[in-house]
């Protein structure tokens, strides 16, 4: 009888210990898993931006022109020759990109931009800036981290800039558009 009580008491203690250990482990593992998945998102965003930049530059080398601005989540002509004006099609040797990514890792879109805004000028003369925008789904912390990984960590300077709430721009190049 005494042994039985002792045994039950020990089992309860064991249970408490096991639950506590599990709780501690969960506390250690869950944030680490969160960081791993964040890391994967930042890596994917960087890889996507660089791959779009490379393909835009390759097409620019062949054609001598950048695409005109298109809407969010739209291939500007890197994959689909039908989006390239007839006059430029003979020089096109794509596809330069397998597909324009349908979303960025935080659920928003990538948007090819050809802008002439004087307040978003990288090279001195205003205009002719080619950018890839990432829109929506991100907060300032995420955008600061993207900037730090790809650029100078300052949202107002360099090749990556953002507005702190829902838009980040990645500079691609400069030149005439078709
Ligand atoms: Ca656009
Ligand atoms: Ca310019
Ligand atoms: Ca920057």
Structural overview:
- By secondary structure, the chain is of the alpha+beta class.
- The chain has one domain: 2-Layer Sandwich (Glycoprotein, Type 4 Pilin), CATH 3.30.700.
- Helices cover 41% and strands 14% of the residues.
- The protein has 2 helices and 4 strands, in the order αββαββ.
- It has helices at residues 2-63, 140-150; strands spanning 109-115, 129-135, 160-162, 167-174.
- It has a 4-stranded antiparallel sheet with strand order 1-2-4-3.
- Strand 3 (160-162) and strand 4 form a beta hairpin.
- The radius of gyration is 25 Å and the shape is elongated.
- The model has no long low-confidence stretch (mean pLDDT 89).
- The structure holds calcium ion (CA) (3 copies).
- One calcium ion is lined by residues 69-71, 111-113.
Strands ordered across the widest β-sheet: 1-2-4-3
CATH topology: Glycoprotein, Type 4 Pilin
Q: What is the averaged pLDDT score?
A: 89
Overall geometry comes to: elongated
Helix content: 40-55%
Order of helices and strands: HEEHEE
Helical/strand content category: alpha+beta
Distinct ligands, ions and cofactors found in the model: calcium ion
Kindly estimate the percentage of residues that lie in beta strands according to DSSP.
5-15%
Distance between the termini: 92 Å
CATH structural architecture = 2-Layer Sandwich
Task: Report the count of strand segments.
Answer: 4
Number of domains: 1
Assembly level = single chain
| Tally of DSSP helical segments | 2
The CATH C-level name is Alpha Beta
User: Taking Cα atoms only, what radius of gyration do you get, to the nearest Å?
Assistant: 25 Å
User: Biggest sheet: strands, sense, closure?
Assistant: 4 strands, antiparallel
- Flag low-confidence runs: none
């Amino acid at each position: 009888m005494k042994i039985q009580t002792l045994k039950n008491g020990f089992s309860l203690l064991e249970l408490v210990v096991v639950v506590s250990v599990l709780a501690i482990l969960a506390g250690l593992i869950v944030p680490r898993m969160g960081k791993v998945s964040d890391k994967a998102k930042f890596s994917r965003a960087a890889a996507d931006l660089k791959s779009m930049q490379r393909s835009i530059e390759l097409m620019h080398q062949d054609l001598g022109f950048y695409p005109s601005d298109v809407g969010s989540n739209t291939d500007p002509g890197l994959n689909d020759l039908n989006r390239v004006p007839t006059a430029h099609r003979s020089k096109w040797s794509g596809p330069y990109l397998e597909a324009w990514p349908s979303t960025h890792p935080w659920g928003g879109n990538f948007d090819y931009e050809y802008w002439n805004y004087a307040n978003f000028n990288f090279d001195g003369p205003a205009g002719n800036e080619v950018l890839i925008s990432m829109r929506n789904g991100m907060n300032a912390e995420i955008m600061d981290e993207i900037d730090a990984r790809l650029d100078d960590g300052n949202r107002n300077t360099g090749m990556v800039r953002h507005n702190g709430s829902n838009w980040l721009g990645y500079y691609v190049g400069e030149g005439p558009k078709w």
